[in-house]
Specification:
Blueprint: H1 12-24, H2 26-29, H3 36-55, H4 64-91, H5 103-111, H6 113-116, H7 149-166, H8 168-232, E1 246-254, E2 261-269
Keywords: Coiled coil
InterPro entries: Myb_DNA-bind_5
Pfam families: Myb_DNA-bind_5
Length: about 270
């Protein structure tokens, strides 16, 4: 079987175009709600972003999966760069930290200040990230902003090995701490998924209850209409010539078998002479 042709790396122009398109829809794209309605909105916006992106001049045709993967990696790389810059400032006592953020990282940091500049685990700040190659194989990637820690640990091994030559005990503690940090992250994902499922189930139950309530209202309305019709069909008495009060008389007849009873209603005037 012929090997799949690898897509071209994302250019700086493509990155800037993607940031421009996402910036206009960031309130939906970066919304942390994961109910069915919000997921549908996100999918719609990503479809619009894909169409707009591929219509621009100077870009390669990209899929939604590739654009999502690039956006996730750009955010993660920006978080790492901001964390590194923060550590460098601490080393210099708050002075200049050397190389500043590039244009892409600065733009993302301004777009998502709370998300990018939030305090992170010190062992996650140096996470090595994917490059700008399109993720052609991961067609089922989701919207999560988290990065798998397996690749992070493997790619940071060379850097940690250099430090371990001087401080073997410190490097060992850092490695163990990072492995422990991966556990709670997975637990949080499972917990969030369970909460989403519970919320969806609750919405379904509420919908069923609403339908039952609507049915009861319709039945009540039907009964009221039937009563009105039966009252309207009663014979209307003629006007009294003697001015006596109008009364309603009920008579009951029973079949010979005694199994059925019939109620008859009459209107009559009582005349006093």
């Amino acid at each position: 079987m012929a090997a799949r042709q690898k897509s071209a790396n994302f250019s700086e122009l493509e990155k800037e175009i993607l940031l421009e398109l996402i910036h206009a829809k960031k309130d939906i794209i970066e919304n942390k709600q994961n109910d069915g309605r919000m997921v549908s909105k996100k999918n719609t916006e990503w479809t619009n972003i894909e169409k707009e992106f591929n219509s621009r001049h100077g870009v390669n045709k990209r899929t939604i999966t590739q654009l999502k993967s690039l956006w996730k990696n750009l955010k993660a790389r920006t978080k790492s760069a901001v964390a590194k810059e923060r550590r460098e400032k601490k080393k210099t006592g708050g002075g200049p930290a050397g190389k500043s953020l590039d244009k892409i990282a600065s733009t993302i940091s301004e777009m998502l200040p709370q998300q990018i500049n939030s305090l992170q685990n010190q062992y996650d700040d140096d996470a090595s990230l994917h490059g700008d190659e399109p993720d052609d194989d991961n067609e089922d990637s989701d919207d999560n902003d988290e990065i798998m820690t397996t690749n992070t640990i493997q790619e940071e091994a060379p850097r940690m090995s250099e430090e371990s030559a001087k401080q073997p005990q410190t490097a060992s503690i850092a490695s163990a701490t990072k492995r422990k940090a991966a556990g709670p992250g997975r637990q949080d994902q499972v917990k969030n998924r369970l909460l989403e499922m519970a919320e969806i189930e609750h919405c379904k139950k509420m919908t069923i209850l609403q339908l039952k309530e609507d049915i009861l209202k319709l039945k009540k309305q039907k009964l009221e209409n039937e009563i009105k019709i039966s009252e309207r069909d009663l014979p209307v008495p003629q006007r009294s010539t003697c001015g006596g009060p109008l009364v309603q008389i009920q008579t009951t007849t029973v079949d010979i078998s005694g199994s059925h009873m019939h109620n008859n209603y009459y209107f009559a005037y009582i005349c006093v002479h």
